[in-house]
Structure formats: structure tokens, C-alpha cells
Amino acid sequence: MITILILFAIHYVIRKNRKLLWSQIICIFLLNLQMTTIGDYFLAMPPYDFYDTVDRNSGELMDIFLQNIVYPGTVLFLMDRYKRYRPSKVVFIIVSALILTVLEGISVNFFHLFTYKGWKIYYSFFFYVFTMTVNVLFYEKITCFIEMRQMSKRTT
């Protein structure tokens, strides 16, 4: 169910009412794809081994879909909201971290997507605060870069 919602959200961001530039969409998506892959690799594998995904202590086919579509897609949707409404950075980061934590809680409690082994749900909140801070800073950097490129093209 969450996956279907995320797919509709991605469709909305990319096709229906796009506010982000294609370059921003691609960069945000790739950043989060990389962070998801590295994060799961380090946190779910020895020596830390904080959680198992689905029913195994190593990756499986569904992990690929989650890492490549669901996690980056959710953050892409949130970043679209950031551009669209320009909320306070702190409020946006905290609200986004709460949303991501709730989605993870639903995944754990209703769909058994993760089995925590020493990990606590509130760790996820702090992890998502970090993740969304990186996303906001990255978005602002890339936006500044794009604007500078467009200005330099106009002057030449």
C-alpha cells in the first residue's frame, strides 16, 4: 500500500505538477539512492547489524525495489513540497523526519519489513533528521549552481 502511494507521489512530482527541474529530480533521486544503499549496507550488515530487512540478514530482491524506488521517491516527494511551499528549513526537516519515521514504523509493525536487532525507532528519527538536512543543503547547492549556470549562459 505504501509503495503504491509512493509511486503515485513520484508520478505526481515528475509528470502532473512538476516544480523541480529534471536536473534537480535526477540529482536528488541519485543522492538518496546512494545514501540508502550505503546506509543499509553499513547499518544492516556486520559489524553493526542493527536490523534485518524482510526476513533475512542480507539483501533480497524486494530490497532492490525499496532502495531504488520507495526511499528515494519519498524524499523526492518531500523535496518537491520544500520547493513548492518554502517552509522554514528547521520545520521542514523535523516534519519530514517525522513522516519518514512514521512510514518506517508502519513498515516495521504492519508489514514486517525490518526486524530490529538493537535498533530503536527513535534512532530512525535522528537518522532522518540528518538525511533531510543533507537533502536540503544539497538542493540549495544544486539550485544555486543551476542558477549560476543559467546566468552565465545569458551573459555570453
Automatic annotation (TrEMBL):
InterPro entries: CBO0543-like. It comes from the Bacteria. Keywords: Membrane, Transmembrane, Transmembrane helix. The keyword Membrane applies. This is CBO0543 family protein. It comes from Cytobacillus spartinae. The chain crosses the membrane at residues 20-44, 64-79, 91-115, 121-139.
